């Protein structure tokens, strides 16, 4: 796994402070040789902040158990990055079985609004919200103007603190989601892309191409495990983009 930012893979305390992302535990990661990452990195996280790393790991595993289509070795560092950030409004495009929706509910404020947009979402997922959270499910095509308007109505002038784009993985699809919904994320807010690594087995998945373009114009971080594990193919990877921030 690698965690890197735009400046030659370095993540410094200044970036951490500015973006309010918790990189203290990641500053050591970039020094670990690439081939030795994964378990070596996790051990290093455990050594630096045992309780925090264990909590991140537990949440990642629970999300996976609830169907999150994620690698826990990418999900746990992402959780660590987000855990101290105020998330009052989260919008996820692409929810599938709901494992990640459950996770955003756990990471968000107790009074947060969490909205899922998916072509087909089970109503039961509403129960993932905490007692004072509001979970809204839009079972619609994210690319329709009516869906965007429904979201705007639900938001009632709130802005989005975290926008997750994990729906249509074609180049045009991911681009359209970004263009339609990122204007609802204010400067300093986060847009999270999943599958920034080009999968060996899925020709139509071209998030990596759009990510490669858009990251040039923003401050960004990447969490990528190089392979899917022993014997499996490459996929996944998170791109975290800080809205409105200058590029390199
Ligand atoms: C990879 S899955 C999401 C995985 C989920 N975020 C997780 O990590 O467990 C992609 C989802 O996006 C949805 N999807 C694809 N195209 C969409 C579109 N145009 N609008 C809304 N949802 C879409 C699919 O129905 C599918 O459930």
Total beta-strand segments: 8
- What is the CA-atom radius of gyration, in angstroms? 17 Å
Low-confidence parts: 6-17, 30-37
Distance between the termini: 23 Å
The ligands bound in this entry are: S-adenosylmethionine
What does this structure look like?
With 248 residues, the protein is α/β, with parallel strands linked by helices. The protein has a single domain (2-242), classed as 3-Layer(aba) Sandwich (Rossmann fold). It is built from eight helices and eight strands; from the N terminus they run E-H-H-H-H-E-H-E-E-H-E-H-E-H-E-E. The chain has helices spanning 13-19, 39-48, 50-65, 72-82, 99-107, 145-155, 171-181, 207-214, and strands at 2-4, 89-93, 113-118, 134-139, 162-165, 190-194, 219-224, 238-242. The chain has an eight-stranded mixed beta sheet with strand order 1-7-8-6-5-2-3-4, sandwiched between helices. Helix 5 links the parallel strand 2 and strand 3. The chain starts with a strand and ends in a 6-residue tail after the last strand. 43% of the residues are buried. The model is unreliable at 6-17 and 30-37 (pLDDT under 50). Bound molecules: S-adenosylmethionine. S-adenosylmethionine is lined by residues 67-70, 93-97, 99-100, 117-120, 141-143, 166-168.
């Amino acid at each position: 796994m690698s965690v890197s930012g735009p400046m030659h893979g370095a993540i410094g305390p200044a970036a951490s402070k500015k973006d309010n992302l918790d990189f203290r535990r990641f500053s050591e990661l970039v020094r670990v040789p690439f081939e030795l990452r994964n378990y070596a990195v996790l051990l290093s996280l455990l050594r630096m902040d045992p309780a925090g790393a264990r909590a991140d790991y537990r949440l990642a595993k629970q999300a996976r158990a609830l169907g999150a289509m994620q690698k826990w070795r990418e999900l746990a560092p992402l959780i660590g990055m987000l855990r101290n950030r105020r998330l009052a409004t989260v919008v996820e495009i692409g929810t599938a079985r709901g494992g990640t929706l459950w996770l955003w509910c756990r990471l968000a404020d107790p009074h947060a609004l969490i909205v899922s947009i998916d072509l087909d979402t089970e109503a039961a997922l509403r129960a993932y919200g905490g007692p004072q959270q509001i979970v809204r499910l839009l079972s619609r095509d994210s690319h329709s103007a009516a869906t965007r308007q429904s979201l705007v109505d639900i938001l009632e002038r709130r802005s989005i603190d975290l926008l997750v784009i994990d729906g249509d993985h074609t180049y045009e699809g991911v681009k359209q989601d970004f263009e339609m919904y990122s204007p609802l994320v204010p400067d300093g807010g986060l847009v999270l892309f999943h599958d920034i690594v080009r999968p060996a087995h899925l020709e139509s998945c071209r998030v990596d191409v759009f990510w490669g373009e858009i990251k040039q114009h923003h401050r960004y971080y990447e969490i990528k495990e190089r392979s899917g594990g022993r014997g499996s193919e490459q996929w996944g990877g998170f791109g975290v983009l800080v809205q409105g921030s200058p590029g390199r």
